[in-house]
């Protein structure tokens, strides 16, 4: 029996604003929660291919660069009708230069937020943890001028 009923991949996608502050993209799912862009890994796809496709489909953003060395997995269970779904999501870190977002029908809103506001906005503790780790990774690895 497979360990998970659903496997998704997603991105902690960020942009640098004009004040050199890092802003993270958080989407408002139609279920009500706020979380990173993500989606089901389709058969034959690598995790990174899924992320590029999902980010494009969900936000319209095509200019994304995946950052090497960050890969974090979370899992949760939720109820779909009467069935309990055991789900896992693998997150990568990605940056973009364009903050223009075109939403799909899957989401009702979006926000580019600094670390603190993004942490407040995210609905679930497991995603908050991913954001904290992403921020720490960036502050240890980002180039200084
Ligand atoms: P995907 O974006 O992977 O295609 P989806 O839009 O079908 O996923 P989810 O975002 O996984 O759906 O949401 C399905 C259910 O799981 C919702 O009821 C939501 O509240 C819950 N859920 C979503 N993310 C988490 C999480 N990180 N931790 C716990 N529960 C979550």
Q: Distance N terminus to C terminus? A: 51 Å
The fraction of residues assigned to DSSP E strands is 35-45%
Number of domains: 1
Coarse morphology: globular
Low-confidence stretches: none
Write a brief structural summary.
With 145 residues, this protein is α+β, with helices and mostly antiparallel strands. The protein contains three helices and seven strands, in the order ββββαβββαα. The chain has one domain (4-141): Nucleoside Triphosphate Pyrophosphohydrolase.
Note the main attributes of this structure:
single chain; 145 residues; alpha+beta; Nucleoside Triphosphate Pyrophosphohydrolase; 7-stranded mixed sheet; 3 helices; 7 strands; 41% strand; globular; binds adenosine-5'-triphosphate
Give an overview in words.
It contains three helices and seven strands. The protein has helices spanning 47-59, 115-121, 125-141; strands at residues 6-16, 22-29, 34-35, 38-40, 65-80, 83-95, 107-113. Strands 1, 2, 3, 4, 5, 6 and 7 form a seven-stranded mixed β-sheet that branches. α2 packs antiparallel against α3. It has one domain (4-141): Nucleoside Triphosphate Pyrophosphohydrolase (Alpha-Beta Complex). The longest helix has 17 residues, at 125-141. It has 145 residues and is α+β, with helices and mostly antiparallel strands. Adenosine-5'-triphosphate is lined by residues 8, 29, 31, 33, 35, 38-40, 74, 76, 78, 87, 124, 126-127.
